[in-house]
Amino acid sequence: MDKHKRFIKMAGDKKLIIGNWKMNLNIGEASLFLHKLSKIVKTHRDVEVVLAPTTLALQPLSLQVNLKQFKLAAQNFYWRDSGTYTGEVSASQLRGIVQYALVGHSERRHVFNENDKDIRSKVAAAVRNGIRPVLCIGETAWEHASNETHDVLHDQLTGGLANITSEELEQVVIAYEPVWAISAGQDSKPVNVSPTDVISAIKAVRSQIEHLYGKKAAESIQVLYGGSVTSDSVADYLAISGVDGLLVGGASLNANTFNEILEKAHKGSKVAKKG
Ligand code: PEP
Fold it and tell me: What is the C-alpha separation between 184 and 212, in angstroms, rounded?
């Protein structure tokens, strides 16, 4: 098995926790924060921890990070590998710097008007460049209230994965993030999504993957939950069958809180293994 396939296989067996720092922390602050995290976060074989700082900090952090402790993710990139695209950064330029990349985060879809065509090109570009895309999908508050969640997930999955073969799907991670549950910043009140809603959405995701790629793919693909996760709610979300990890925004910017989330993910997976 080649090195990249082995990395994907090993990552697939762990709980995946991604900290999305969004447009917070400059290079110096991000470096200091990584230093602080590296002192307190214990490495557990059953938890893969990924940090997604600002694009600007990725290269220096890639030199500082211990890859056994943390992997790095890009929050965004352009899908072409090179060319006359002023201001953009490509997946090919991120090769060797990051192991993961978020694609189609709701802030990209709703603030920057990314559509399914942009998103499917990005998923393919990440895969082409040996970077695991984390395809973010989720319904808005209005779509939720109108009972359209499953239709939205169906369309975003079909649209986002349109260029991906069964073999390539092994590299892809899906993050279900109800847009209405994503916090508006560090001090905003967390929105707790009911387990029933999460279970139903995760089932819909796996059933659509089964429809597109078959049963084995539906069982093995990593599906994360994201939206206002805190150290108080982490265990509940991870206890939901079919949730393989978490995408954490606001709570990942506090070193102690993020560490608590990681420790609870580790404890949760020990309990799940025993049970
Ligand atoms: C996110 O950035 O994807 C996210 C889920 O943010 P938060 O945890 O702050 O809701």
Answer: 34
> What number does the ligand 1 atom closest to the CA of 250 have?
9
- Rounded distance from Cα 263 to ligand 1 centre (Å): 19
Q: Quick check: CB of 99 below 6 Å from ligand 1?
A: no
- Which residues are within 8 A (CB) of 41 and not within 5 positions of it... i.e. 6 or more apart? 49, 69, 70, 258, 259, 262
Q: Is pLDDT above 80 for 272?
A: no
Q: Whose CA is nearest to atom 4 of ligand 1?
A: 249
Q: For 63, phi and psi rounded to 5 degrees?
A: -85, -25
Angle in degrees, CA 179, 194, 231, rounded to 5: 80
Q: Ligand 1 within 6 A of 228 CB?
A: yes
For residue 87 the two structure tokens come to 């201001």
**CA 177 to ligand 1: nearest atom:** 5
Q: In DSSP terms, which residues pair with 16 in a beta bridge?
A: 48, 245
Q: Say yes or no: CB of residue 177 within 6 Å of ligand 1.
A: yes
Does the C-beta of 247 come closer than 6 Å to ligand 1?
A: yes
Q: What percent of the chain has pLDDT over 70?
A: 94
Which tens digit of pLDDT belongs to each residue from 143-155? 999 999 999 999 9
Q: Residue 71 pLDDT > 90, yes or no? A: yes
Distance 9 CA to ligand 1 centre (A): 26
Query: How many Cα neighbours within 13 Å face the side chain of 146?
Result: 8
For residue 275, pLDDT over 50 is answered with no
- Report whether pLDDT(271) > 60: no
